[in-house]
Amino acid sequence: xxxxxxxxxxxxxxxxxxxxxxxxxxxxxxxxxxxxxxxxxxxxxxxxxxxxxxxxxxxxxxxxxxxxxxxxxxxxxxxxxxxxxxxxxxxxxxxxxxxxxxxxxxxxxxxxxxxxxxxxxxxxxxxxxxxxxxxxxxxxxxxxxxxxxxxxxxxxxxxxxxxxxxxxxxxxxxxxxxxxxxxxxxxxxxxxxxxxxxxxxxxxxxxxxxxxxxxxxxxxxxxxxxxxxxxxxxxxxxxxxxxxxxxxxxxxxxxxxxxxxxxxxxxxxxxxxxxxxxxxxxxxxxxxxxxxxxxxxxxxxxxxxxxxxxxxxxxxxxxxxxxxxxxxxxxxxxxxxxxxxxxxxxxxxxxxxxxxxxxxxxxxxxxxxxxxxxxxxxxxxxxxxxxxxxxxxxxxxxxxxxxxxxxxxxxxxxxxxxxxxxxxxxxxxxxxxxxxxxxxxxxxxxxxxxxxxxxxxxxxxxxxxxxxxxxxxxxxxxxxxxxxxxxxxxxxxxxxxxx
Length: 499
Hints:
Blueprint: H1 2-48, E1 49-54, H2 59-67, E2 81-86, H3 87-95, E3 100-104, H4 119-131, E4 137-144, E5 151-157, E6 169-174, H5 181-196, H6 201-209, E7 211-215, H7 220-228, H8 288-300, E8 304-309, E9 314-320, H9 328-340, E10 352-357, H10 363-371, E11 374-379, H11 388-409, E12 413-420, E13 430-433, E14 444-445, E15 452-456, E16 460-467, E17 474-481, E18 487-493
Parallel strand pairs: 6-7, 6-8, 8-11, 9-10, 12-18
Antiparallel strand pairs: 1-2, 1-3, 4-5, 5-7, 9-11, 12-15, 13-14, 13-16, 16-17
Helix pairs in contact: 4-5, 5-11, 9-11
């Protein structure tokens, strides 16, 4: 009896040990499965994580970003922010009407893809094109970079390239920001396109009736720094200004955001902290690169300008947050027409149209406020450094917008000349259209060489007033402007009698 009882106990003990072993194995398998699923989930989450570039347009948008916990700083700076998020965040932001784009899909240590040319290689390409067309193309040095004193070049394309003509000037430029080369190559493609097709009717009209200027890279120091240093994401945005004057370039401390350095609402835009991406500099136009643009613009008084940036696939125009521009309907209309001609890389839709922040010292806002230039910023491409073949494709795509704008320059336009009544001498008079006044936007001014002015306008009737110190102001009109061609008016001013 005792033996049978002992055997029964041993059997129970073996069964218990067996069950414990089976349970332990099951627990280990479960734990392994749990860890595997968790790992796969975390890997999936990692793959789903992206760096977002978000463009809040107003305080309501900013409040949405705070509620979505995409920003924590209640008073974040800049016109846009870059934060980590998920693909679903882009969909949600789009649903809520907040422009957003993906910078990269998480690989934050990415370097610049192969194929991007250094500044001088880019310029060698341009020099060869200009050398092959010396009768219509000329290369100018318009300034030197702030740190390394590299030459900043501009190409002029016109039928009488060696002299100033009584023609409207147009500007295309790029490279304010070091990490935005797609726009730089768009400028190369503009030069190539105009020179290679110079014999075709449309191209002959543009070259014969306009002075076309192209600045391919305004920030050669910053661009070459990105390429030469093999700097990893987020690469570099600013120029190489030595902010603390120690004779060394230190990425943590130095550099100025050139597109926050223009003298229009300079104090209210960008940041006053040197280590930020948006540092606006110590004073307006403190940077040699910005002064180079300012000097050229002062001389040429561009009627139209496009500043290429990247990225975001949008067309931006002056402005919101400031007094409404007198040309607001025309600026928006032109931006919409440009956007219709540009296709987003990933979904095939048209570029978005977004007003600029008028409280920021950017190129387009400054050009419009200072010279009445109809100025735009095109954010080209879906990321800063797409693979080189895609970058070339995006750059060439911008030509559709360029062609539209050049054609538009030859249509509904108000041209004029102001001269002294007695002598016929050209006068640098100010030109004001009816209901055209703005305390923050300068009136159109005639050039001093020919006394000419050029204004893109919508078709319609316009009353024009010419003013100059020492002369009687005079108003003429209404002058009819059609959509077919420019309308010319000559105005004579009489000198005021001496007291």
